[in-house]
Amino acid sequence: MDTKYIRNFSIVAHIDHGKSTLADQLLLLSGAITQREFKEQILDDLDVEKERGITVKARAVTIHYTHEGEVYELNLIDTPGHVDFHYEVSRSLAACEGALLLIDAFQGVQAQSVANAYAAIEADLSIITVVNKIDLPVTRIEEVLEEVETIIGLPPDEALRVSAKQGIGIHDVFKAIIKHIPPPAGLADAPLRALVFDSKYDNYRGVITYIRVKEGTLHKGQTIKFMNDGSKSHVIEVGQFCPKMVSCDSLGPGQVGYIVSGVKTLGDIHVGDTVTLAENPAEKALPGYAKPQQMVFCGMYPIDATDFEKLRDELHKLSLNDASFTFAPESSDALGFGFRCGFLGMLHMEIIQQRLEQEQEIDLIQTAPNVTYELLLTNGQTQLIDNPENVPDAGQIQEFREPIAKTAFIVPGENIGTIMQLCADRRGIYKSTEYLGPLRAQIVYELPLGEIVYDMHDRLKSATRGYGTMDYEIIGFKESDLVKMDILVKGVKVDALATIVHRSEAERRGRSLVKRLKKEISKHQFEIALQAAIGARVIARETLSALRKNVTAKCYGGDITRKRKLWAKQKEGKKRMKQFGQVEIPQKAFLSVLDVA
Ligand code: GDP
Ligand code: MG
């Protein structure tokens, strides 16, 4: 295929601005899908994604479109729209020459519009601004275009106005892609270099590797070499997603498609790797990407110890199709044998949990999530901490470091004060304020990730009645005065309840945590002391008095916020209790930490 008829692009947008709808509309108009399939939103094919209206995994689809008598091959590489998946956005963009920046005609520029647009600019892509939902009864198209110019720096004159839902202006989108996005460069007879930008596991064909050919040509039947580790593999099939998998004889420069080869497990495919031919290999690999780092961890324990292997199988299955989810066995005095699971962020964690809940019937106890910390030890070594329980004695720690996120909020002007207070309360460092127009502003803070992961998003939404949006990016670790806070129940440390807190906050949090626990744990036949301690020093204490005769069982109550609903959905009741010494601790108690932020 002559590269002059190829275009590779992504659609970047804030969540809910209509990316999936536009992608499907492009497929519909090109005849790749039927009206019925359009209604079913084919690009988001996982249940969880549909339920949450987000696209998690990057996908690729090839669209054939005839323009002025020529058939063009347009490769759309889908990107996820949420903060947790930044790394997937940049890996998808690396396979493109252009991007459509899609913006809701009423909501205007939001936090992820800015973040994703910047990512596209950094990747040197040609960007086409597309204002979507022009069919809405109330729109602010002109203001929205001004916002794009002010905060992102893209001129309004060539912006398109469309309705993805009603199919208005879609042919203009095709034309703009063909006109404004440059065709890929690359010679067909150069040594092969193809970028691996995704992979997935298919029950019938095994590992499917998504590639974008940069130069050279790959034929079916050839032997390829992965430049990362030099491993070789026979190519059984090459093809494109149209959107179903359609095999072809070869993929040339600029083309996007898949390889089915003898690779056995997804773990053998490294996103960002370069594929070349075993014979006549390329000399240098393409620039890859940084590996995503898990920033949020939690423990998952089966209530019934005999479910351990079953849980391992389930976690393994989930990790097969999501290389950014990790898990490793660990044991807890309080909870027995379980797994420490690593996620990119809180949303990622919720998605995995939801999948786990949908797919199996293991009763789980989950510990409160924590972020990754970095320690500089007195012996000069650094250590990453993914479980508060693993923090060594204070004497061995020279520096306690926590992850810092550069966080951008876009909020109505009247809420600026509230957001600034919220950030100040969370040890934020103010960076800047920039107005998008007369009514809205972008505020940037540096915040400890640990302070934002639990409830920042909920707080922002309630402070701005749903109008505020945020986006964050980890910029590194910074030294902070952090301590490990232990919880003792009846004089015994419960390891699964240990947390890491800022020293200045320790007493307040300790006090409210033991109060909270007092509510969660039922009375027993004896008195139970609940204590929070730093090292040997007790900083808070509550006493749960002994059960007297004729006292009816205590009801669990309390407020359940949006985030906890998911856990609350988990069957409550007797099964979700852990016997700890003489004391029964319910599942909810292990999440109490979340309620005392
Ligand atoms: P994504 O999160 O960016 O993928 O957004 P979706 O494509 O899932 O769309 C989010 C919501 O906006 C859905 O309810 C769509 O039906 C709706 N939507 C998308 N495009 C339009 C449009 O052009 N007009 C209107 N009125 N609604 C739209
Ligand atoms: Mg979507």
Structure notes:
The protein is an alpha+beta fold. The protein folds into 5 domains: 3-180, P-loop containing nucleotide triphosphate hydrolases (Rossmann fold, 3-Layer(aba) Sandwich), CATH 3.40.50; 193-277, Translation factors (Elongation Factor Tu (Ef-tu), domain 3); 296-367, 2-Layer Sandwich (Alpha-Beta Plaits), CATH 3.30.70.870; 374-480, Alpha-Beta Plaits, CATH 3.30.70.240; 485-595, 2-Layer Sandwich (Alpha-Beta Plaits). The protein has a 6-stranded mixed beta sheet, sandwiched between helices. Bound molecules: guanosine-5'-diphosphate (GDP) and magnesium ion. One of its GO terms (biological process) is positive regulation of translation.
Percent of residues in beta strands: 35-45%
Return Rg in Å. Answer: 26 Å
Principal-axes geometry comes out as: globular
From the N-terminal CA to the C-terminal CA, the straight-line distance is 58 Å
CATH H level, superfamily name of the largest domain: P-loop containing nucleotide triphosphate hydrolases
Q: What's the CATH class of the largest domain, please?
A: Alpha Beta
EC number: 3.6.5.n1
Family: Belongs to the TRAFAC class translation factor GTPase superfamily. Classic translation factor GTPase family. LepA subfamily.
GO cellular component, one term: plasma membrane
Binding site for GTP: 16-21, 132-135
Summary tags:
597 residues, alpha+beta, Rossmann fold, Elongation Factor Tu (Ef-tu), domain 3, Alpha-Beta Plaits, 5 domains, 6-stranded antiparallel beta barrel, 16 helices, 25% helix, globular, binds guanosine-5'-diphosphate, binds magnesium ion, protein biosynthesis, LepA_IV, membrane
